[in-house]
Write a structure and sequence with these properties.
disordered N terminus, 2 domains
């Protein structure tokens, strides 16, 4: 049997960068964002009247930063359960798009294993994963579990810490906790731009997004401009890239 046949028939040795431990390591840069925002969420949830156990369950089952902020605010305002669930449902619809973007890299897995990967996917872990895709054009199940589980456990811990210690922190923004999450996404964006090596195109898309967001804000106040800018600017970037 030739050497080439032996290489084909022998199982591939998993690379260190695809291991569970490497997934844990790759999640570390995002932990500060999770800690700060999770801490702030815990403070808000405790202020809304939730117990420590309820906050643990909310963080473990819902596991969505923006949705938990909304839920805590609506609970504090005395909203009924149905409006809270409907609001959270629409806020979290974006996760369908995030999962769809990564699904081609896990087609070989069973539906159950795909569910395990997708159920713990967040905006932050998606950002790390898509950055890895830009560099290697592949993802490994074990690496993804390391990334997801590290973020998941850190988020629960941050929420509980915020609920417990929040009684001594009246103004989380005083410590810059409100900027930690945007700062983390800025870092992930820069890493993605550098790894893609298409700086000119990315700068054009960024400028288009800012111009559109500011322009729409004059007509429709609120976050509508951000949504419109995201859709239109990304479409412009795709058309330019395909045209080239």
């Amino acid at each position: 049997m030739s050497q080439e046949e032996l290489q084909v028939k022998s199982p591939a040795t998993p690379r260190n960068e695809d291991s569970f431990i490497q997934g844990v390591k790759d999640c570390i840069p995002t932990l500060l964002g999770y800690l700060s925002i999770g801490f702030a969420a815990g403070v808000l949830e405790k202020t809304a009247g939730l117990s420590i156990l309820e906050i643990i369950l909310l963080s473990a089952i819902l596991y969505a930063g923006s949705a938990q902020f909304i839920a805590a605010g609506m609970i504090a305002a005395g909203s009924a359960a149905t409006p809270i669930m409907i609001t959270i449902f629409f806020v979290n619809l974006r996760h369908i798009l995030l999962s769809a973007a990564l699904s081609p890299y896990f087609r070989h897995l069973t539906p159950f294993k795909n569910m395990l990967v997708g159920s713990l996917l967040t905006d932050e872990t998606f950002g790390v994963a898509i950055n890895k895709v830009a560099r290697r054009n592949q993802l490994n199940e074990k690496w993804m579990h390391g990334l997801n589980l590290t973020a998941y456990l850190n988020w629960i811990f941050a929420n509980v810490a915020g609920a417990y210690f929040g009684q001594w922190i009246s103004d989380p923004e005083k410590f810059g906790l409100d900027f930690a999450l945007p700062a983390m996404f800025i870092g992930l964006l820069i890493l993605a731009i550098v790894s893609r090596k298409k700086v000119k195109l990315d700068v054009i898309v960024a400028i288009c997004a800012v111009v559109i967001a500011v322009g729409v804000a004059f007509v429709y106040p609120g976050n509508v401009g951000v949504i419109v800018a995201t859709v239109v600017a990304s479409t412009i970037g795709m058309v330019i890239e395909k045209w080239k």
